[in-house]
Design brief:
Helices cover about 25% and strands about 35% of the residues. The protein contains three helices and ten strands. It is elongated and about 100 Å long. It has helices at about 1-20, 95-110, 170-190, and strands spanning about 40-45, 50-55, 60-65, 70-75, 80-90, 115-125, 130-140, 145-150, 155-165, 190. The protein is an alpha+beta fold. The longest helix has 20 residues, at about 170-190.
Length: about 190
């Protein structure tokens, strides 16, 4: 009996001594690893206005308005679960170009409240007459990329990326890095038809 009481006392002493002031830190949430397809591209050719190379993992369709196909496009990002909206606008005069650029910059400014940072990258391809800017938003924002391209005289296109999920920048970062490479390739291969 004394052995049992002694053994029980020893166990209680060990249990109580192990309950010190040690701070327990919960593990951070984990996210699934995404396996991205290899970067391979195919040429997308709008018969009248522009062409560019698009990742084979994405699918594009022309949007229609009142039954007529427009030069606006919706590009589904396949495994990334998002969409790139491309909106094309003709430029009838110089004032219109300024208005379109200001509109694009205003759309960027709308996201300054939530963004922890905004990076911009300018593109100038004089030989193709393609000029534009890519905006990259950091933080939990509704759109992580916006861009515009123009020939500065007749054509203007504005692009915006929307992901089909809750904006969690940390978990989206691998997908956004993958997408950024494809967006830069799209911009670098962009050409006007006129």
């Amino acid at each position: 009996m004394i052995k049992i009481i002694g053994f029980t006392s020893l166990i209680l002493a060990l249990l109580l001594s192990s309950c010190g002031d040690e701070l327990l830190i919960p593990k951070p949430p984990t996210y699934l690893r995404t396996n991205f397809p290899k970067h391979e591209y195919v040429k997308v050719d709008d018969a009248t206005t522009y062409s560019f190379e698009l990742s084979k993992a994405y699918f594009q369709k022309a949007l229609s308005y009142k039954g007529e196909v427009t030069n606006h496009k919706e590009i589904t990002l396949g495994p990334l679960n998002g969409i790139i909206y491309l909106n094309y606008y003709p430029i009838p005069n110089r004032d219109t170009l300024v208005r379109y650029i200001n509109l694009s910059n205003d759309k960027v400014d709308e996201h300054q409240i939530k963004a922890t940072g905004i990076k911009d990258q300018n593109f100038i391809f004089k030989d193709k007459k393609v000029y534009g800017t890519l905006f990259e938003f950091e933080g939990n924002v509704a759109t992580n990329f916006q861009f515009y391209l123009t020939d500065s005289t007749s054509n203007f296109i504005r692009g915006e990326v929307l992901m089909n999920c809750r904006p969690n920048y940390d978990s989206l970062r691998p997908s956004l890095n993958y997408l950024k490479a494809d967006l830069i390739h799209l911009i670098e291969t962009f050409e006007w038809k006129k």
